[in-house]
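We were asked to recover a plausible sequence for a given structure. The inputs and outputs are reproduced exactly as logged, with field labels preserved.

PROBLEM: sequence recovery
POSITIONS: 315
GIVEN STRUCTURE:
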């Protein structure tokens, strides 16, 4: 009688309701498993290495592994890196070679603005400019390495510097940085062209037409209307470009594995790479990586702080 419920209104006894079995939705389970794949990948290949790198920065390691032979040395790795003249030379080299970001962005804006006009074959031009960006960095660098060759490089042939007057682009400190910048601008501006092309479609045509009626010239329209409208795209390209420049490594490593003339090709990541594979100093390399991460954080925060010139209103 205890298991029988009686309705107060009807006065009739009702049998107890059976317990509802928990039903597992197969689609929900499959979706959860698929959604967890990126999270698992981040934990295995992102979070765990990040924690290990942070720990290794405080140890003197005998090999590549953090084991019982490792010795705790506190902040000595950070002190060594920050007082190493080669590290600060790598910072200067990174900033010099990173100037290609600004040059590339200017060229990308100009070309995108020209291709926004009614000209024949502009879609083909956009595709041609974008191809270098999607190609392998190593393949492009090897191609330019042959083009910059002192004896048979096409660059020297085009400018008429052959024989005894040939320019040693990759062996002369006066030209090495220029060679890297030229190659980086050529291969990197395709992405900016595509984004600027998309941004230019959002320019208010009514405003440009009204400016023409008021007598505004092409330069006035460009600097007073077009540039403010596409400033969010400019800001995005600037932030991402500087982050990528601070992490540059592949180009200089392929062009000059020894670091280039007078070490001009040693960037911050190149400096880190040499600490790992040349000197077997994992602790110093980990400290360098965290110093670089802090530098990127500071530069990015400063860019956002001084981003008042960005206009998000397109009306």
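RECOVERED SEQUENCE:
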């Amino acid at each position: 009688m205890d298991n029988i419920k009686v309705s107060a209104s009807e006065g009739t006894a009702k049998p107890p309701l059976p317990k509802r079995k928990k039903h597992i939705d197969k689609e929900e389970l499959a979706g959860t498993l698929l959604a967890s794949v990126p999270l698992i990948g981040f934990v295995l290949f992102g979070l765990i290495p990040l924690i290990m790198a942070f720990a290794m920065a405080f140890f003197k390691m005998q090999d590549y592994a953090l084991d019982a032979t490792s010795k705790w040395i506190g902040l000595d790795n950070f002190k060594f890196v920050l007082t190493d003249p080669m590290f600060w030379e790598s910072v200067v080299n990174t900033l010099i070679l990173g100037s290609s970001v600004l040059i590339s962005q200017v060229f990308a804006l100009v070309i995108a603005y020209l291709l926004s006009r009614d000209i024949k074959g502009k879609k083909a031009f956009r595709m041609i400019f974008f191809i270098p960006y999607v190609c392998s960095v190593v393949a492009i660098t090897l191609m330019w390495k042959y083009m910059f060759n002192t004896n048979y490089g096409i660059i020297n042939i085009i400018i008429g510097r052959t024989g005894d007057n040939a320019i040693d682009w990759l062996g002369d400190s006066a030209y090495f940085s220029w060679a890297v910048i030229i190659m980086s601008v050529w291969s990197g501006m395709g992405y900016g062209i595509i984004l600027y092309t998309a941004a230019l479609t959002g320019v208010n045509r009514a405003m440009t037409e009204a400016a023409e009626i008021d007598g505004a010239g092409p330069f006035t329209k460009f600097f007073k209307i077009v540039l403010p409208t596409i400033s969010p795209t400019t800001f995005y390209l600037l932030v991402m470009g500087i982050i990528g420049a601070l992490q540059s490594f592949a180009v200089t490593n392929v062009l000059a594995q020894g670091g280039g003339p007078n070490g001009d090709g040693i960037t911050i990541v190149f400096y880190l790479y040499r600490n790992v594979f040349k000197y077997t100093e994992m602790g110093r390399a980990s400290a360098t990586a965290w110093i670089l991460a802090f530098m990127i954080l500071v530069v990015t925060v400063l860019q956002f702080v001084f981003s008042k010139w960005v206009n998000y209103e397109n009306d």
